[in-house]
Amino acid sequence: MELAEVRDPGMLAHAVATALRLPDQSARDPREALEEYLADKHLLLVLDNCEHVLAAAAAMVSSLLLAAPKAQVLATAREQLRVAGERVFPVPPLTVPDTRAQDCGQGWQAGGDVGYEAMALLEERAAAVVPGFSLDRENKLAAALLCQRLDGLPLAIELAAVRLRALRLDDILDRLGDRFRLLTTGPRAVPPRHQTLRAAVEWSFDLCTLTEQVVWARLSVFAGEFDLEAAEQVCAGADIAESDVLDAMLGLLDKSVLTRVEKGPASSYRLLETIRQYGRERLADRGEETTLRRRHRDYYLARAEQAEAEWLGPRQREWSRWFRGQGPNLWAALDFCCTEPGEHEAGLRLAGVLWFYWVACGCVRDGRYWLDRVLALPGGASPERARALWVDCWIGGVQGDLPRFERSAQECLELAGRIGDRLAAAYATQFLGWHAVYRDDIARAAELEEQALARHRAIGELRAPALRCFVYGTIAQLELGDLDRARRGGPVDL
After folding, report:
1. Which H helix or E strand runs over 75?
2. Torsion angle defined by CA atoms of residues 92, 280, 330 and 102, in that order, rounded to the nearest 10 degrees
3. Which residue, 153, 202, 204, is CA-closest to 176?
4. What would the DSSP string read from start to end of 263-315?
5. Is 410 exposed, middle or buried (0-12, 13-18, 19+ CB in 10 A)?
6. What is the pTM of this model?
7. What is the rounded distance in angstroms from the CA atom of residue 363 to the CA atom of residue 375?
8. Residue 73 bridge partners (DSSP)
9. Neighbours of 224 (CB within 10 A)
10. For the chain, which has fewer Cβ within 10 Å, the N-terminal or C-terminal residue?
11. Which residues lie closer than 8 Å to 455 by C-beta, 6 or more apart?
12. Nearest to residue 487, comparing CAs of 477, 451, 453?
């Protein structure tokens, strides 16, 4: 039986008795009558949507199973009943194709039937509202992207299919930024919470405790996966203690709002995009969006600075593995710096300190994009800008973009001289030496690398990436035929 309309937990046993057409008109407790009625029956009792009367449902099911050992109960809810003998069968979202996977060009996209549940549901529901609709080579990629962005949620896919009466798949994709306004108008015969995507998510939100609601909203500032430490550091504050964050996350996991990602030894978590967008709306309603986005940025900036300090050491692999999974959060933090007034200096600082992520972790194109954005922001001369410039010129060198390489290095050297930034001057000189190697000006390269290394030594900066002076210097000395200096590792001994 459907329990969604049973709002009063005290009416639960009455509702079940009515559904079973229990012939009992006495004044006794309905639960007692149910237990007596079911005592000797082989019966499967289906209780659908128990979450809003969870405690009452758990108590009733527990007593019924004791009184009626031949009966079984199938209960659906967003969290467990936690009664003796309960077996849990999680229901994940529908399977969706990975549009980045290698099978994109040969499986579903090329017309093959790979059996993705979300695609099958979309095709079936779309054909019901648009006679003759089918997935083919022309529209399968758009359909896959739609299913992916809707997280494989059946309700969202069904509501999107209804919109195909007036829109193309590409049009729906373009409008998913406001999915709660777009995905409405479900069948009139279904419960109200299934008629719009917003109503379905609000149903889940209303079932959460106040603390869970606040943490849900605050977790929406994360993009992609995050770990417990990040959640505690970002979400705690004001009326929420760090210990409250863990308890709330456990509650959100139980309610299937939060998803645990099984990847590697450490636990990480994520919100489905639909859940995250709703949380962001509630965060804005609380007036906390800017505060939480800044706190999120500060957390990843602090982690980046710690990783940079420890990069040339035993934790390098650990840091590399951690940051490789944090791209979306780094992009979100940098986007905040680029779009929020007064945050440009922090953006320069973050983009600069992430040199190890851009270059050593294989994210050079990402680094170029974000450095372009932060360096284009209005702002004065600062050490943060000087640092971003030498990181930018390094990326230009890695990509073989020599004009960018030289332009950023020269600007960095000029800026460093104006503000007295000795470290930035050392790096600008170092990268100009590398640029000279590219231009086959070997004598100039050897001279610049020797100057750069002397500058680094003077300020005690003999760590990555300053140590690359030895690489560039050795190359120059080999080209000049000075094998003794090349064998020692560079223009100047340590």
Report:
1. strand 72-75
2. 30
3. 153
4. -SSS-EEEE-HHHHHHHHHHHHHTT-HHHHHHHHHHHHHHHHHHHHHHSSSTT
5. middle
6. 0.74
7. 18
8. 45
9. 18
10. C
11. 422, 425, 426, 429
12. 477
Number of H helices, E strands in the chain: 25, 4
> What does the pLDDT profile of the chain (494 residues) look like in tens digits?
777 667 678 878 878 887 888 766 666 777 888 888 888 888 898 988 787 788 888 988 898 888 888 889 898 877 788 888 888 888 777 888 876 644 444 444 444 445 788 889 888 888 888 888 888 888 889 899 888 888 888 878 887 887 887 788 888 888 877 777 776 665 554 555 555 777 778 878 888 899 999 999 999 999 989 999 999 999 998 789 998 999 999 999 888 889 888 776 678 999 888 888 889 999 999 999 999 999 999 999 999 999 999 988 899 999 998 998 898 999 999 999 999 999 999 999 999 999 999 988 888 999 999 999 999 998 888 999 999 999 999 999 889 899 999 999 999 999 999 999 999 998 899 888 888 887 878 788 777 877 888 888 888 877 767 666 566 666 666 666 666 665 555 544 44
What are the structure tokens assigned to 385, written together?
């800008």
Cβ-based neighbours of 372, under 8 Å, separated by 6 or more: none
What six digits make up the tokens of 225? 């996966």
Distance CA 90, CA 104 (A): 28
Amino acid at 370: W
Give the CB-side neighbour count of residue 473, counting CA atoms within 13 A: 26
User: Token pair of 383, please?
Assistant: 């050490």
**How would you classify the pairing of strands 268-271 and 258-261?**
antiparallel
